[in-house]
Design goal:
The complex is a heterodimer.
Chain A (H helix, E strand, L loop, with lengths): L1 H14 L6 H15 L1 H18 L14 H15 L4 H43 L3 H16 L3 H31 L1 H16 L6 H8 L3 H25 L3 H9 L4 H34 L9 H9 L3 H28 L15 H21 L15 H16 L10 H21 L3 H16 L1 H16 L3 H31 L1 H16 L6 H8 L3 H25 L3 H9 L4 H34 L7 H11 L3 H21 L10
Chain B lengths: L5 E12 L16 H8 L2 E12 L3 E5 L6 H7 L8 E6 L2 E2 L5 H10 L1 E4 L11 H5 L1 H6 L3 H14 L15 H14 L4 E5 L7 H18 L2 E6 L2 H7 L2 E6 L2 E6 L1 H6 L4 H7 L10 H4 L15 E2 L5 H10 L4 E4 L5 E5 L1 H9 L9 H4 L3 H9 L1
Parallel strand pairs in B: 3-8, 3-9, 6-7, 7-8, 11-12
Antiparallel strand pairs in B: 1-2, 1-4, 4-5, 9-10, 12-13
Helix pairs in contact in B: 6-7, 13-14
The chains are: A mainly alpha, B alpha/beta.
Amino acid sequence: MTVVAESNERAEVVQKPEQLPPSARANKVVAAKLLQRPYTGLFVLLLAMVISAIYGGFQSGFPTSWVPNVTTWFNSVANWITIHQNTAPFFVHFLTPIGNWLGNSVNAVTDLLNWLSWPGVIALFAGTAVLAGKWRVAIFVVIAMFYFGLIGLWSASMSTLALMSVAVLISVVLGVPLGIAAAASRVVEEAIRPILDLMQMLPAYAYLVPIVLLFGIGNSGGIIATVIYAIAPVIRLTMLGIHSVPYETVEAGKSFGSNKWQLLRKVQLPMALKPIVLGINQVIMMALSVVVIASLVGTGGLGDPILQALNIVDVGDALTAGVAIVFMAMILDRIVSAVAENVGRNVSTKGQRQLISPRNLRIAVGALVIIAIALGNVVGGGGSFPAGLSLSLSAPVNSFLSFLQSHLYHFSSIPVIGGTSNLSSFTTLEILNPLTRIIGDFPWWLAVFGTGVIGYLIAGWRRAVLVSIGVTAIGLLGMWTDASVTLSQVLVALVLCVVIGIPLGIAAYWWPPLEKVLRPILDVLQTMPAFVYLIPVVLFFSVGNMAGVTASFVYALAPAVRLTNLGLRQIKVDMIEAGNSFGATRFQMLRKVELPAARPTIVLAINQTIMLVLAEVIVAGLVGAGGLGYDVVVGLGRDEFGLGLSAGLAIVVLGIVFDRLTQGRPAGRRS
Amino acid sequence: MEKSQIQISCKNLWKVFGPKGANLVGSPDTSLPPAELQEKTGCVVAIRDVSFEVARGEVFVVMGLSGSGKSTLIRSLTRLVDVDAGEIELCQRDVRKADKNQLRDIRRHNVSMVFQQFALFPHRRVVDNVAFGLEIQGVKKADRYRKVDELLQIVGLSGFGNSYPSELSGGMQQRVGLARALAVDPEVLLFDEAFSALDPLIRREMQDQVIHLQEQLHKTVVFVSHDLDEALKLGDRIAIMRNGAFVQVGTPEEVVGSPKDAYVAAFTRDVSRSKVLTARWAMQAPRYPSLSSYEDRVVPPTTLLQGVLPVVLASELPVGVVDSDGRLIGELDRRSVLAAINDGPPDSALNEDEMLTTPANWREEVAK
């Protein structure tokens, strides 16, 4: 056992040969380990903090005199772009054609949908579900699509659908080959990984302003925003799918002498197909949520009525459109996953007894679709849903909502809290506003070097420098105060998510029936686009900070619960057995075995929760949550590109700082 | 065996996995072949009417192929798996009737287990892995670490206390697992295929360590294994398990020397019998009345036949077997030694297919 001898020596060096009681020795070694790394670094950081504090005269907040006139500078850039849009070759020969092409593609798809006519579209979607063997999905599709028509949002739904199809198609066409390239080459992977990280981390809001600047208001901008958001997961899941092919299978392929290309085409891609198609389902969900937000840059579709309704706080209208979005999400989700299940299903259907043979079913469905198209074009009004067939839900919904409001919102019946309006004003006045003030007045030197210290303790020097620069940048962008508004809401929502979500995840792990109850609820929460959460929130908490907090709490709750639960369920059985075999109580198991073992996943849960909360707080800028999100909305709307760009950049920086502060050291390749 | 000497006693244990498996216990269906039973009821019998006793200080090895039910059996002793019927007594405590607190107490103080895949806690340093059982009992930190230091020394890992399990090799990890089990000073140690995941060399090292420890500590050990050499090396007695039932229980010599049926015979076919059987096994009545007739050609009864072989091969003369009191108890000659060594079953005694794991057994493994 030479190894033992070696390490004895090693341990001796740290311990010094003096004889200590074992526990003290153990403690000392730990202390030594702890001190080795952070000692010098901490010292430098603290020194820097003290010097800058004295130099800055212990000033609170971020010194306004230091803020360069970024906004004006950005504005002049924006002006330059506006002026040269029609002359500079970069625009004329590159961006403008791309924009036009995208716009034309959306128009082409919209034309196609119109040609199919509304009965044709319904028949096509329902027929696809039937062919995938999901009759119940087909029935749901018919009902949901009639809903689009009846509430007068048929053409809005179709333009959302058109935008989505183009955006997802582009993401897939560009993303899958990139994913294959990244899977095949380590170099490509290393090169695009940080870019993917950034793209997935950023709330779509952050890049809306530059997109509008470069592509103008309209569908093309919306598509670009959606593709930026959706392409990263396509690349990731293609890579993941190819990497998930068992190594033995790849080796078997190699052993027959196949070259790289043959290996890819005949072994890896076919086996990766199913995970890729399943993943595209998620991409569609994500794309939908951005397509809706993209109404802000002038794309039409289902986001538009919500935006308008929210502007005039007409919750009834917003809600009917919101339900349409949720229906759209569910239709796409169910149909794509039904189709994906059939992809690469390696079971021959021979010998199964079926009512109708698959061939006849295909013929029947095909015939039905053709008849529906014909009917639609001849008598049904083609692309537009017959105006006579309409259902005004707004009025009944509004009266129901005012009933709800009068019982929940205005003081009255709820014990202790009063009504949700009391809760809202209490939280805003007593928690959010003071917190915002505290963060806003937080001395810059403490903020900059304090986050630096945290970053240093988490992952060393580079992390410390990165987050310190990030915090400084927010100040230099002139966004210190606005960021503090956003930050206070993020913190409160995060605390709520952690305090409620993690215990809920644990409870569902302990008590499986709860998991069964939670699963469909979480499913729905996760399919709803970020936008939709704002609607009920406005109803109960009116516009303001509290709306931001509540929407982001609800939005980010699902992953907090899910990931905690997943982390606990993924613990190896034998580890649980080992704990039990030593007679641990339920609580000891949780504290000493399960929670520590699930820690990486729970940390990930917190990381994801923060990012989602941040994204939603930004979106909530639309409903008076203020902060950076509101700046972006203003920047889009009132020709204040400078403000919008600054806020967008600040969002990027804030996102990076949050992300880096909640992730451990880079561990090379993540498994 | 005397009552007070018995540390583990199991009577008529049954465990049936599958829908309403408990109802099948003792029913005629259970005598169906596994595949048919699976077809008919969707159930798999994991433990079939198993009874055995283990004495204090004895090493009892349960041997069987994967899916034979041995892992389920060892887990049922501490109710990590609950059996459907039967009695389990462990250190004079009724395990099956124990309530939650009593069971916890048994697990904390009487038994501990070493796992196949080590089952170390990756988030704990080696010291805290070893101290886990003591921590659960509520032992103070200083006392825990004192005990841990002692144990790490015993298993040859002192100096590794502050490492994390992932920083150690497989063999070292299982030493931690062993130390963790020993730390609570249990009366009974359970080994679930503890060394199967290790390289042959390391495995042998660990087996030697267990033998060495056992000489000093005299624990009662139940050792589950699929490795016959391991079973023969460690076991005072060996139980051969198949389809949930014990086929044969006996000393290594009995199992190798007189296999009860074709299955056991096929199992032990490749064992080098001269390394297991002893002089006592092969000896016959002495032909000469007095010890002096054998001159210096005498051996104690515990001598392995491989030790006697060169002597009987070199000479036609018989070898006397003499017990510790110096009495002549038998003799060996070339014929009796070679007969004992050769007396294996013919190769065709068992259909090879029966040795393989059946699909039903495989399902049981998966179900676990």
